[in-house]
Amino acid sequence: MIELPEAITIARQMNTALKGKQIVEGMRGNAPHKFAFYNHTPEEYAAILQGKTVGEAREHGSLILVAIEPEYVLTLGGGGERIVLGWGAAQLVRQSELAKHLSVGPGAGGVSPLSDAFTWEYFQGLVGALEADDARSVKLFLTSKPGVLDIGNGCLQDILFHAKIHPRRRMVDVTEAERRALYEAIRSTLKTMADQGGRDSDYDLFNHPGGYKRILHSKSVGQPCPNCGTPFEKAQYLGGSVYFCPACQV
Q: Given its phi and psi angles, is residue 152 left (phi above 0), alpha (psi -120 to 50 degrees) or beta?
């Protein structure tokens, strides 16, 4: 599914391949399935899109926002999608209503982990706002905290591996030194993923897999950790799978 690195990659590709082109005809629902989500009828999509110009595309967490000039934005993603298969949401929103639309979407109110605003002080503030008895795990904190814009479960695995932190660990128990390692791992891992065109489990605008080779995933279970040789393990946690090295990640 598309997460931040893939959204960055696809937005860049759209700006190269599509920006400035005029839309002759627009359609929706030509291959209907239950994983497609729209906010207008097929007739409304056709009427809105016809004659419009494709503008700048940018990422917003796992969402891709494409300007449909002069007055609309096409929002893609937010539903576990694979863009070449038409999975997920493809919604047309007026420019004037975009802020409201995003206020209830993925990572609402958060800051992108790759933006200049996501500083060490900002991250420290998010963690410092937790009460001493807060039971949230590191996984739950990073994937659901409103202040962090859309770190998904897929990218989370390698982030926590590099930070050497177990996904079930209580966030309030993470020391300041470990928080620093976690912050650095968030920034560096996501940047590497984006620079390499996304993860090898996902596909870009042209149906090519990303170049980032994941360390932790379903096929890594039982394989030796490259740092210590301990076999990787898998557990079901918070509605999904987590993968980790039981020796390195504490």
A: beta
The CATH number for 120-244, chosen from 1.10.8.50, 3.90.1010.10, 3.10.180.10, 1.10.10.10, is: 1.10.8.50
Backbone phi and psi for residue 156, each to the nearest 5 degrees, phi listed first: -60, -35
Q: Which residue has the higher pLDDT, 63 or 192?
A: 192
Helical (H) or strand (E) element with 159? helix 153-163
How many CB atoms sit inside 10 A of residue 157's CB? 22
Q: What is the pLDDT of residue 31?
A: 62
The neighbour count for residue 230, using CB atoms within 10 Å, is 13
Does residue 159 carry a pLDDT above 80? yes
Fold of 4-102: N-terminal domain of MutM-like DNA repair proteins (3.20.190)
Mean pLDDT of all residues belonging to the chain:
91
Given pLDDT bands bounded at 50, 70 and 90, which one contains residue 107? low
Q: Is 96 exposed, middle or buried (0-12, 13-18, 19+ CB in 10 A)?
A: exposed
Q: How far apart are the first and last CA of the chain?
A: 27
What's the predicted TM-score (pTM) here?
0.91
Alpha carbon of 227 to those of 90, 155, 234: distances in Å?
Answer: 42, 19, 17
